[in-house]
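In keeping with the milestone schedule agreed at the kick-off meeting, the structural modelling team has produced records for the first pair of proteins. Each record is given below as a sequence line and a structure-token line. The laboratory manager (R.T.) confirmed that both were archived under the project's standard naming scheme.
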Amino acid sequence: MKIGIIQQSCVADVEANKQKLARNIADVAERGAELVVLQELHNSLYFCQVENVDNCNLAEPIPGPSTAFYGQLAKQYGIVLVTSLFERRAAGLYHNTAVVFDTDGSIAGKYRKMHIPDDPAYYEKFYFTPGDLGFQPIQTSLGRLGVQVCWDQWYPEGARMMALNGADLLIYPTAIGYESSDTPEEQQRQREAWMTVQRGHAVANGLPVITVNRVGHEPDPSGQTAGIQFWGSSFVCGPQGEILHQASQSAEENTVVEIDLHRSEQVRRWWPFLRDRRTDAFGGLTERFID
């Protein structure tokens, strides 16, 4: 399967971001991409740097204007397309939602982000209600996609649940970057930890991982911080965690990467982790902490 990953910077103009994405989707599709993955909340700037109710005006229903826009692109290019939208479910009820389109432009399914951060410059709990759709892979004409979103990528339980539910791939639209006051050494440790934990999901589950992050600097509208420098580094790795492609830390990039889905079968035969799991001994995983 040929995977198209689009790592780009965003501006305040939503329509400009969408048209830029349309051009980039055309680029990777014309180079043979069958599955195209976009970054988290790609329609706008990463508005969660501040708590401002007016930012809820960016949310829209699903289906809605953006699903019509991206569905048409999926149909036009005959691709499976993974998008990331700010979903308005009802007044005052919003989700951070990945929507997947099949090659005919229809909505194959959606995933609502389960783990919601609340950290300096990442005030997502102000905007997003935790997901209620579980860790269910989305069936498409290319296979079963285990789509999660950003902060979910730090949790091995979510990756495992997707694998146990039959996912063929693990996919993470992402928006993560450096806090300006951290030292360069600390920033590097954070970025490497981010890659390592996701490569670990690939190894532990015998599945490829696709992670697409945004890039560029976005200022803090409140002026309280120096903003976020998104660290790019979008990557694709195989079922043994082997890096098939890693994007720049600072530049926009459209890339097509080929993966061999049949390899997962062989890797799982060599390392049959699912066979040897002690499912009778994991009850404590449902506890917050075992005192």
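The second protein of the pair:
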Amino acid sequence: MRTLKVGLVQQANGGDFRRNLEKLSANIAAVVARGAELVVLQELHNTLYFCQTEDTACFDLAEPIPGPSTGFYGELARELGIVLVTSLFEKRAPGLYHNTAVVFEKDGTIAGRYRKMHIPDDPAYYEKFYFTPGDLGFHPIQTSVGRLGVQVCWDQWYPEGARLMALQGADLLIYPTAIGWESSDTDEEKMRQLGAWVTVQRGHAVANGLPVIAVNRVGHEPDPSGQTRGILFWGNSFVAGPQGELIAQASNTGEENLVVEIDLDRSENVRRWWPFLRDRRIDEFGGLTRRFID
């Protein structure tokens, strides 16, 4: 049986960039000490979630790739001997920025990157102001621990990206995330939102016969503009198996490190029992490339 130990770092961030990196470094080391070979971080983990407002000064947070952050995380991956999935604010060129996941190999080199494809534009999530939609497509990243189908946050609501990753041999679906509640929502509505978030990703696991790893940030982050009461990021980082079964799940109230053992051979068995890929009517799916069918 092929198994893989995965570390999930669910962290609350503050306004001190250096302190955030120190916490991340300590948390990564902690899950590695428990046997993690692959470590996944949350979305935009270096800083506060700056997309609550539209502020041109926030573009100063972006870095080129390669750059200082890739040097920092590459060295961590090399020192600890792990594959590491990070989420960075990429400055590609003057005026051109992306929300980019960078994956590091055990020797510290960059194994690959994924630029977030679906960019939200909602109250307190003004990402279209900052990020250009990705142009690297949906392609798994080959690493020494397997082919990683990495996407980012808002991508997790779309089944098409998960399916395209699966069709190219992804062993795992991975989603660094930053999602939470607006304080004016009722408790019932908050639970509906959280339930939908978990359910849709478990659905990707079922439909593709693959494990899913979702790592979300946690804690309250105020709105610098004062227009809202900020975002309470709901945590609940989790790992689901290839039948959608919840293998592990963090709380929605605090920082937490998870180390989860995943059976990589189970996907093959599940796909033999439930041959969804065999039975797909690809000859009838042309309409999926249209925005809407009148």
